[in-house]
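Case study 2.
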Amino acid sequence: MGDKSNRRDFIKKITAAGVGLSVAPFNILHARDDNHTAQIGVIGMGARGSGHLRGLLSRSDVEVPAICDVDPKNAERGVQIAKEVGREAPELYTKGETDYKRLIARDDLDGVIIATPWLWHVPMAVDAMKAEKYVGLEVPAAVSIDGCWDLVNTSEETGIPCMLLENVCYRRDVMAILNMVRQGLFGELIHARCGYQHNLIPYLFDKDANFGPGTGSVSSWRTEHYVNRNGDLYPTHGIGPVAHWMDINRGNRFVNLTATATKARGLHEHIVDTGGKDHPKADVEFTQGDIVTSTITTANGESIIVTHDTSLPRPYSLGFRCQGTNGIWSVENNSIYLDGISPEFDEWESFDKYQDKYDSSLWKKQEKEAAESGHGGIDYFVRNAFVESIKRGVNTPIDVYDAAAWSVISPLSEMSVAQGGHPVDFPDFTDGQWMTNEQIFKPEEMGY
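Prediction:
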């Protein structure tokens, strides 16, 4: 970054704005303009981090001077990505698990994107915020209640934003539904459904049905969570959009949760089907139930059913449903029914015309740019929001309170399952300020 003193002054303004405020401390002054070039480091150069690096380097307003990974081969892949697009090779940090600390200590970085195994998210994000770096954190933000509090407390103490990079919040259909909800088309919201329903078996094992260190990008660490835990391991893809529909943390909040889990069969069956009963992993006892169902109640009286279903054969779906006093939308059949608006009483109609009418202005304006990024375009929008927040010197549209409230579903569901489905209460990470907080996820107004 050319002027390091300007960056320090900017960070001081951010931090000063956060002193003494327990909630929404990011009353950040507009210290920059659109000509600012964001300097961003990337920690974790697996498939997800590599995708972020490509996306960042496709922008003329971003430079990536440093990347970090415990595997030097992964880091070198980042160098090749930079060279392919004619960019200067980033400096590499590959000297062990804590070498990321040298990266975040650099004084030429505005922010970092963290795309590492889940257990590293909290310590890396906390250290980065303490080093006065914006944090873009992959999902889930944390896997424990204490971890969620660590993120919130550190962000409040430092005044540094921590954005959960929940890309599904920018999915085209759920953004159209958000527009419809905010325009009152569904009436008063009553109920929603969502989840993560995705056969992950090809990712949780290598081709020989092995998992653990050295077996692959995801199978080397993620499958262990299925051995040691039993709950909704991955709630944010589904709950993020629903939380925006229901103004969670901004006039509403999650109050309590109950969760149940089925028996665990899918992963064991895959091992035996692939390698037989004598396979070295055939005796592993998986704790994670094949299907975990969580029911959340909110302060405003809505209910939400969240489903985690990742270890059985099935097509992909996030299972969205939005239902209010005036109608219902279901992603499963791309259908909608609005009382007094739909042409036939008690019959579904296609959502297509509503998608066109209530389509997000972001998608209309930036469809071409989005089409060149991952996951059908949503990666572009979530990354763009992070970059634009840094450039403008403002809080991110998905903040640390969202990160905590959405991610804490995992440990709470584990607690409820372990207690036979007993209700567990959500922490109030906003300390009561949810009652007066204003909406911050306003992409139609902000343009990102």
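The radius of gyration is 22 Å.
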